[in-house]
Every structure is written in C-alpha cells, then in structure tokens.
Amino acid sequence: MKNVLRLCAGLILVFFLGFFIAGGRDVLRPETVGRVKDWASQSVLSSSEPTRAAPESPDACARLKRLLFLHDAVTERMADKRIVASDELPDTLLKAVVSVEDARFFSHPGFDIEGIVRATLVNLQHGEIEEGASTITQQLVKNLFLSQEQSFSRKAEELALALDLEMRYSKMEILTLYLNTIYFGSGYYGIYDAAHGYFGKEPKDLTLPEAAMLAGLPNAPSLYSPYEDFLLAKKRQFIVLDSMARTGAISESLAENAKIEPLYLAH
Questions:
Q1: Is residue 47 a contact partner of residue 72, using CB atoms and an 8 Å limit?
Q2: Which 8-state DSSP code applies to residue 81?
Q3: What domain count does the chain have?
Q4: Considering only CA atoms, which of 47, 26, 27 is closest in space to residue 36?
Q5: Closest by Cα among 145, 206, 142, 139 to 175
Q6: How far apart are the first and last CA of the chain?
Q7: Which residues in 9-41 are b (16+ Cβ under 10 Å) and which e?
C-alpha cells in the first residue's frame, strides 16, 4: 500500500510539473484564487443549475476547477448524452470491453503500470509520445475533457484526472460512463446509438456475438465499422472473443460458437 501511495504521489507531482510548464503558474495569481472561490460558492449554492460545455482548450483556471470539482465537470459533459444505466448493460458486453480494452481494469488504480513502463521506454527512445498505455479510465478522461494533443504535460494531466476519477467513482460507474461516451464508428456515439444503429435493438438485448463486435469497434471505429468493412469487423470480433476466452470471461467453446453465429445488421 505504501508503494502505491508513493507512486500516486509521484504521478501527481509529474502532473503539476507539466501543468505549470504548460501555463499552470497562472493559478497562483490573486485573481485566479478569487475565481476559484467564486466557483466553489456557485457549486454549493446552485449545484443543479445547468452548466455550459467545457471549452476545447481550457485555460489554467478552468483546468484547476475541473480537477477540484471533477464530479460537476463530469455531470456537465454528460448532460446532453443519452445514458444507458449499468443495469441495462448486458454482462457479456461489459466483459467483452474489459477483456479487449483493459484486462486489469478492475485491479488497477486508473493506470496500468506495465503498460506505462513499456510505453515510457518507447517514448523516451523516440523523444516524444509514440505509444500510449491508456486504460479505460484514461480513455474516459480523454473522451470527456482532453484534446488529442500528444505531449508529456497533457499525459500528466490525463493521469491526474484518471486518479481523481477512480477516487470519486466506482469501477462500474466508470465503465458505464465509458460505454456511454465512446465512439463506435458510423456516427454512433455511446452504446445506445451503437446498439440501435448497428443491430436495431436495445443494449440489454445484445447477444454475445453482437456485444463482441461492438466491443471491438472503439479501437479503430472508422476502420472496424461493419458498415465500412464487414469482413474486417468480423475479424476484430474474433479477436474480442479470443480475448474473452483467454481472460476467462467465457469458455473457449462459447467463443467458438459465437464466431459462427449469424449477425444481422440494422441496415
């Protein structure tokens, strides 16, 4: 536990170093402190008041506010999305996503040490961000708040927000938020639109083969969309089913049967 706490503290330190290098020193100005106090007061007095969408490139003050009041920031970003509750998501879909996207999701604190070490070695070798090691939590942070900029300061902010998210939300809440925000290709954002758009049904009614195909799309949605290339989408589905069998989410026989079960698209 002490090692984990030391690691968390180190990552937070990395975030603030990158934060200040990227312009975060502005938060020390008196006017910034006053604005943060105003935000805190507004949060307490009118927590139900509708909020505006977060800017694409927030300044240092907005980034600090987001870190301090993360729950409010998440609520704001989810306000215009169609939400499918966790009890309406089939277990096979949840297992498929975790198996192929982040096998250690339920055991890590928001970041994957093994993935970070591997990616860090590659990035140091190239002198820039060449390889990522994003967990589901980090992907959710990016979907909600961050740009696609590849820089060490942005990655540090991503890690800090991921740690904050893990402290404020349960694993199932994070996974549910992820499925309601991720892009599935063909213009479908979130599992509700994806289930209806690809298979014409409610998410809760997805079969194992359907869930496995949807779980494989976020990795490269424009490439794997069955409306773009059904054969490639089918190959990706096989990868997901094999991952589920390898992690023990389903049996090998169930995975093999799912591979040959017919799929009927909505269009």
A1: yes
A2: S
A3: 2
A4: 27
A5: 139
A6: 52
A7: eebeebbeebbeebebeebeeeebeebbeebee
**Could you identify the residue written with the tokens 């943060």?**
36
CATH of the domain at 226: 1.10.3810.10
Q: How many CA atoms lie within 13 A of 239 on its CB side?
A: 16
Q: Which two three-digit tokens encode residue 27?
A: 């938060």
pLDDT above 60 for 42: no
Q: What domain range includes position 199? A: 183-267
Pair (117, 165) in one structural domain: yes
Q: Is the pLDDT of residue 31 over 50?
A: no
Amino acid at 166: E
Residue pLDDT, tens place only, 141-157: 999 998 766 667 777 88
Beta bridge partners of 36: none
Pair 146, 15: CB distance under 8 Å: no
**Rounded-to-integer distance, Cα 44 and Cα 72, Å:** 11
Q: Please, are residues 131 and 118 in contact by the beta-carbon 8 Å criterion?
A: yes
